[in-house]
Amino acid sequence: MKCVNLAVLLVFLQNAIALNTANTMLQNAPFANVTGSLNDNGVCQCSVYLPDTMFPVQKVEMLEITAQVLSEKFERELAKVSQYTKAIEMYEQKIQNLTIKVEHMESTSVSYTELDFQLLKLEINEMERLVTQLKSTLVGSNVIVEQLYVEIKNLTLMVNDLESLDKNNILSIRREIVALQNRLKECEKHRNQTTTPSYFPPGSCGHGGIVNISQPYVVQLNWRGFSFKYGSWGRDYSLRTPQKDLYWVAPLNTDGRLLEFYRLHNSYDDLLLLKNARELKIQYGEGSGTTVYNNFMYYNIYNSRDMGKLDLNTNTLAVRKTLPNAAYGNRFSYAGVGWQDMDFAVDESGLWVIYSTEDSTGNIMISKLNETTLDVLHTWNTRQYKPSISNAFIICGVLYATRPVNTRKEEIFYTYDTNTKQEGKISIIMDKMLETIQSINYNPSDQVLYVYNDGYLVKHNLIFQPVLH
To answer: Are strands 456-466 and 363-369 parallel, antiparallel or unpaired?
Structure first.
């Protein structure tokens, strides 16, 4: 504004000089020092000298030049201010956008990635550089620029805090989610491929464990009727006479505790037709944890921590042995299934018992038994709470535990490998006919699960995967 006023003053001074010069020449002509001469054409030429004491013409010319320089400098600075004004408006808009982004990142925990932080940092650093440059070109203090600079610094601190907090939480979770999504895509890819399941001969442990399970095949209702919901059944795994079939069915009494009667069938056809059955009585077993191995039945003797070995040829108790420290009396039975404190199992290597003790605080314990004497050969402690699972079985020294998903589905979710002492998590869904599974017995000779499901005899075929290298 000052430069504009100076330019107006300069114009006014120029007009005044011209007018004053003319008047002076007219009024003071007699006193002027005038010299003249004639040129070749006879024209008179003269020059007039105005002394400095009359008017400071040279100073006015210097003033005019200075005013012109100031005017040009003013125009340049005015153009810069116009540019800075536009830049400040742009930076204010960017800061508002960045503020919205940061607030969104604060309010949502998994909607951003490490790249978001890097992009934010780049934008903030660029604005900080430009505002610093703007500050250096302005003389004196500018409130708007200073406020911009402070806001950009605050944004930088806020993003750094968010990133440092996130490094231990959100980003790691997102990386795990991405890894799981990739694994899921791989599983979907393999599932959609039609491949023939690998074959592993009966009794072989050259596989990598269960990978899938068939739909349930209902054989029949147990011979005692629908009211006898608890019990167990299966096929004898006999190394001595592998060509001979022996199917057994052992429903408990209606109290769901007492094992009193059982039946033997010499063939699968006899079982289906309910013919040629031998119905026998014992004194007394407890719970649904019974199994048959090499023509002997193994069970928990009623109201004790004793194990019983029953000779099926003579229906006599051949061995009675206490399982050391085993809990009994329905202390740590399976979820939804009472009185199964001991669960006997058979796999390719022999006889096992699954149980808990007070010292294990209810967690599953696995003991390998000498089938002849019922002595404990070795014991493994797990970290899986026995009353939290619905049932269990053993294949090739690996314990598999199940849990209910709903009234029509069960999940094989937990493993414990006694060969490596390693626990694992899997998810294999097993369909079921009715709500509660009372017992599961695995037979290595046909690789089938024999399931007692609310009084019904059900079979599941197993599919094994190759060993993963």
So the answer is: unpaired
pTM: 0.61
Chain segment 63-103, per-residue pLDDT in tens: 778 777 777 877 777 777 777 777 777 777 777 777 777 66
What ranges make up the beta strands (E) of 18-78? 34-38, 44-48
How far apart are the C-alpha atoms of 128 and 11, rounded to whole Å? 45
Cβ proximity of 310 and 280 under 8 Å: no
CA dihedral sign of residues 309, 311, 315, 317? negative
Work out the average pLDDT over 101-114: 60
Tell me the one-letter amino acid at 285.
Answer: G
Q: What crossing angle do the helices spanning 2-27 and 57-107 adopt, rounded to 10°?
A: 170
CA atoms within 13 A on the CB side of 462: 28
Distance CA 453, CA 391 (A): 12
- Determine the distance from the C-alpha atom of residue 185 to the mean position of all C-alpha atoms in its chain, rounded to a whole number: 14
* Locus of tokens 């203090």: 141
State the CB neighbour count (10 A cutoff) for residue 6.
Answer: 15
CA gap 419, 426 in Å, rounded: 18
d(CA 261, CA 251): 7
Find tokens 């049932």 and name the residue.
Answer: 391
